[in-house]
Known about the structure:
This protein is an alpha/beta fold and 103 residues long. 40% of the residues lie in helices and 20% in strands.
Amino acid sequence: MEHPPLKVILHAPTPAALERARNNAANLRRADPQADVRVIVNAQAVAAALDVVRADQDPITWLCPNTLTRIGRPAREPLQVLDKPAVLELALLQQAGWVYIRA
Length: 103
């Protein structure tokens, strides 16, 4: 059965959640290549995302600007920085129809 493209947010606030989110994103994209998947990272997971490179997942990983400021570290490419705090982006994306999954 055909369905509209999935839009999925995988939220990772801890290093363990980040690892799960990256694995889940890879599994989802393998099972449904048309899915639009974003890994949104905040809190303790931001440092882990900066420190642990995942070339297959980094381009779809978005970092909380508040956490980057708090820890005093810049983002590295190809990681992306959200325009707004993660909590607000998560709410706005859900309001726009994205499916939220806490990793």
